[in-house]
Design a protein that fits this description.
The chain is of the alpha/beta class. About 35% of the residues lie in helices and about 15% in strands. A hairpin with a 2-residue loop joins strand 5 (about 145-155) and strand 6.
Length: about 375
């Protein structure tokens, strides 16, 4: 039953055709798990809490940095360096105290996914990487739970509903993961901040439709949105009989070829010692020029996308340390150069600029 406060709060829902108090009570009696509290998780969590979902599970183990604020509207400037989960719980509770909030301060993996997902009616995938998307998909198949998929890249977004009264699942859309070096993340390829709000809001809308049995959810359909032209498409998805192949959870990094090559690493403390000892080595920065203007280790700037055309600049006879903001892009550069040139003198700087600011130079600006 709804309390007098809730009846007043949700009045605009009650007057909707085919919604009313009955649908609102369904929302109150529902539980939703949101995996990822970043660009998509921000609007999804806020709109579901505002709509009156009874219980929200929140999964994230990341911290907030200033670049998140361009699109992650759940956070404020004073939240920088805090844990996303901590600030999300506080901010959502201030929006609607009626919502029960479950905090899961972990990165979802094959060991904890089934236990975490089992307790919720519906799962919303707000992640930004292929291994976790396949993990969420497979866990929902094994638990027979519907989930709402969303993704954004640059100016385009996608939404679909999987495993809901249909055999269609994420593996029917992507039977095989793409080459990890061919798909840049937000840090590498960029993303329009407002696009996250649009796609996240659509994900929240799909969840409400599923939980209240109204409208036509995007089951067996992929919705595609172009924010530059406002063009939209809906593509009919066909089953490739992939659901039956999911028997258990696997190593999704390996499946997505994230661990396909061993790379050597140096820590920021080791790099600092190399600099102090004036060792002869090459330091390469694979970030973009605007990033290097904010903070730099004075390495040779070769953005990741320009590595193939600058292979001749890579030293062959001495140690080469490659760095970026966090270690992700530089790891891709090391992988590429090892495979293309067969070099064994390449080292990835573990943790990148962020680790340097934490462990070596606290005055360095994190961005």
């Amino acid at each position: 039953m709804l309390s007098p406060d809730e009846i007043k709060r949700y009045q605009r829902h009650f007057v909707l055709p085919n919604f009313g108090q009955e649908a609102q009570e369904k929302l109150k009696n529902s539980s939703v798990l949101i995996v990822g509290l970043g660009a998509l998780g921000s609007p999804v969590s806020l709109y579901l809490a505002a709509a009156g979902i009874g219980r929200l599970g929140l999964v994230d183990a990341d911290s907030i940095n200033i670049t998140n604020l361009q699109r992650q509207v759940l956070y404020r400037e004073q939240d920088i360096n805090a844990k996303k989960l901590d600030r999300a719980v506080d901010n959502i509770a201030q929006l609607n105290h009626n919502v029960i909030l479950d905090a899961h301060p972990y990165f979802l993996n094959s060991d904890n996914a089934l236990e975490i997902l089992a307790d919720y009616d519906l799962v919303i995938d707000c992640t930004d990487n292929f291994p976790t998307r396949y993990l969420v998909n497979d866990a929902c198949i094994l638990l027979n739970k519907p989930y709402v998929y969303g993704s954004i890249h640059q100016y385009e977004g996608q939404v679909s509903v999987f495993n809901a009264n249909s055999d269609i699942n994420y593996r029917d859309l992507f039977p095989e993961p793409p080459n990890p070096e061919s798909v840049p993340n937000c840090e590498e390829g960029g993303v329009l901040g407002s696009l996250a709000g649009i796609i996240g809001s659509i994900q929240a809308n799909e969840a409400i439709k599923l939980l209240t049995n109204i409208g036509e959810p995007l089951i067996e359909k992929l919705f595609i949105f172009d924010s530059l032209t406002l063009d939209t498409r809906k593509i009919k998805l066909k089953s490739k009989n992939t659901k039956a192949s999911v028997k258990s959870l696997i190593d999704y990094d390996e499946f997505c070829k994230i661990k396909n090559k061993m790379i050597k690493e140096v820590t920021v403390k080791e790099l600092h010692q190399m600099m102090e000892n004036k060792e002869d080595f090459q330091l390469i920065d694979v970030r973009e020029p605007n990033e290097a203007e904010i903070s730099t280790l004075n390495g040779e700037l070769i953005p990741l996308g320009q590595i193939p055309e600058n292979e001749d600049k890579i030293e062959k006879s001495k140690k080469v340390v490659i760095h970026c903001r966090s270690g992700a892009r530089s790891g891709q550069a090391v992988n590429y150069l090892q495979g293309k040139l067969g070099l064994d003198n390449l080292y990835n700087l573990k943790g990148g600029i962020l680790a340097w600011a934490d462990e070596i130079d606290p005055t360095m600006e994190k961005y």
